[in-house]
Amino acid sequence: MKRRALLAIGIWIAGLIGCGIIVTRTHFTADLSAFLPRAPTAEQRILVDQLKDGAVSRLVLLGIEGADAETRAALSRSLGDKLRASGALTAVHNGDATEIERDRQFLFENRYLLSAAVAPARFTEDGLRTAIGESIALLASPAGMMLKNLLPRDPTGELVRMLGQFDGESGPPRVDGVWASRDGARALLLAQTRAAGSDIDGQQQAQAAIHAAFEDARRELGAPAAAATLLATGPGVFAVAARATIQREVLRLSLLGTALIASLLLLTYRSFTALGLGLLPVASGALAAVAAVSLGFGEVHGLTLGFGTTLIGEAVDYSIYLFIQSRRDGTDDGGARDSDWLARFWPTIRLGVLTSVFGFASLLFSGFPGLAQLGLYSITGLIVAATVTRFVLPNLLPADFHIRDITRLGAALAKVARRAGAWRAAVAVLALVAGAVLIAQRAALWNAELAALSPISAADQARDQAVRSDLGAPDVRYLVIASGADMEAALQAAEQAAAALQPLVDAGTLGGFESPTRYLPSAAAQAARQAALPPREELLTRLRTATQELPIRPERLTPFVDDVEAARARKPLLRADLDGTAAAQAVDALLLQQGGRWNAVLSLRAPQKDGAT
Predict the structure, then answer these.
(1) Which of 57, 84, 337, 486 is 20 to 30 A (C-alpha) from 295?
(2) Residues 6+ apart with CB under 8 A from 142
(3) Chain segment 523-557, per-residue pLDDT in tens
(4) In this structure, are residues 512 and 505 in contact, taking their beta carbons and an 8 Å threshold?
(5) Mean pLDDT on 574-588
(6) Helix residue spans in 270-330 (DSSP H)
(7) Which among 391, 309, 310 is positioned nearest to 350, based on CA atoms?
């Protein structure tokens, strides 16, 4: 074999080894944000960040089904305890009273800065009389013992109001002390993963930890829990399932496409040698394409791999042209045949490759990274496949290589082609019908929804919406963003947005919303609440008048007066003051700094529908 041929083969093998090493280290993803704009607007950038790293992308919604209500509640408590202890998740909520107790003290100590009800009217004589009267009336409720102890310090009921707002507005009903669906058929938990939504490996590990903890809890409870099952849903669950589905489908379709093409070629060639040699350019092109995308983008999307089947169909033609002109009888080295192939067929192949490359090159300049990946994958695969066919494959053909004579098949196909003229009228009618259908369907011809690319079934999406509605969890499709030059400006903007959204909640148009200002009001809002608190002597005077007709002496409310006076002198709460509380996690998830600006995220909840499950 000539030195030039050995050099070509050596470079090819070295290239395959290098590409193989790159592919083994490649990160494959199913993140559909790759099909969002590469240079998005500010609003789109926030959306992309939320899809990848935001709080809603980290939520895992859990439902325990089967068994009886008491067993489901026991499983919920056990599962929550195990997950909190494991450290795999940043937060786990199931409505257990112990959760509220952890943060109750923080809310209580800062109630006059955190409560949105603190306003001048609330501390007038009439306002105090009404608020204290309501608190006294609540003493007859099941929570009366706790309220009795709180009354001297919190007669206006700020803590009860905040707890009711945090729990009652967004939380589902309780059965046996834990959250349950409205029909009582499942116990509910809400977890937040430590891994970002775009970290599918981290999401998969978190889900594995959840299922392992559930199995441990079920084993500990024994026979009563044998019939219980765990339902998990949410963006992270969907991302893991989507990646597995895409990988499975890509493998299945690639194998199917390869099998069909290989069967056709084998039927035609009647030679396994010819078949194997014919697929070498395709395999080389696909391997190089994956490596190129990995180097260019840092990851390879599953949908990009799906284009491998398209590459097979086009690149295999290159070797077919070579084989047709490469019948060898062993009397020479095939040089004449190779020269004839280069002269007659290579220019045609080269032109076909160039037209395809220019066609796919337009994708490289797409504003959507996913489409740019498809362009790079196709261009690299076709160029490498053609190059291998031109410089490597001729040197690998055996001296006596030949394929089955397909002249008779070609003649038969030519005969059919000559008779195609008789079908001109039918083709014209078919074209007119097709054009009419396209015109009639022009309004619905293009699907601009990114969700159309999702492999998640409609049944799974409906189940997610049902559990999300039961939990009152934010709908990940709808966000309101309030921006500001600094954290204080973003918080003030969020408060203005919340004031605009609250009437929609009151009217039932919205089920509710989450805002970082619920846990960390702006300094301006805190200052306004402090200003609403009357000075000590004035408050004492108002209390004496307000309690004249109430069954409580104003002297008993001295701790309340002391707390109000202390709140008047407190410094505004800062983010650092929230450390160690659940409020810190909520604020960090909903208040983000991006490009020198701060964004407050208000996640919306759909209204609950009666009878929905």
Answers:
(1) 57
(2) none
(3) 999 999 999 999 999 999 999 999 998 888 889 99
(4) yes
(5) 81
(6) 272-297, 302-305, 308-324
(7) 391
Distance CA 232, CA 42 (A): 33
Give the integer Cα–Cα distance in Å for 341 and 28.
39
Angle, helices 582-590 vs 97-109, to 10°: value is: 80
Based on the number of CB atoms within 10 Å of its own CB, is 588 exposed (0-12), middle (13-18) or buried (19 or more)? middle
Please give the radius of gyration of the chain, using alpha carbons only, rounded to the nearest integer. 34
Helix segments in 195-271, DSSP class H? 200-221, 235-269
User: What is the torsional sign of CA 346, 351, 354, 359?
Assistant: negative
Helix, strand, coil percentages in the chain from 3-state DSSP, rounded to 5: 65, 10, 25
Residue 37 sits at φ, ψ, to 5 deg, of -55, 140
In this structure, is the dihedral angle defined by the CA atoms of residues 372, 376, 379 and 381, taken in order, positive or negative?
Answer: negative
Residue-level pLDDT at 331: 45
Give the rounded distance of the alpha carbon of 199 from its chain centre: 9
Structure tokens at 44: 């789109």
Q: pLDDT tens, 44-68?
A: 666 666 666 666 678 888 999 988 8
Region 325-331 average pLDDT: 52
Q: 359 to each of 310, 389, 593, how far by Cα in Å?
A: 14, 21, 40
Q: Are 154 and 144 in contact (CB under 8 A)?
A: no
Q: What CA–CA distances, in Å, run from 96 to 93, 99, 494, 603?
A: 8, 6, 30, 24
Residue 78 structure tokens: 């056990």
The DSSP code sequence of 574-606 is -GGGGTTSHHHHHHHHHEEEETTEEEEEEEEEP
Per-residue pLDDT tens over the stretch 77-99:
999 889 888 877 877 888 776 66
Token reading at 416: 């059919």
> What does the alpha-carbon distance between residue 284 and residue 278 come to, in Å, rounded to a whole number?
11
90 — phi, psi (to 5°)? -85, -25
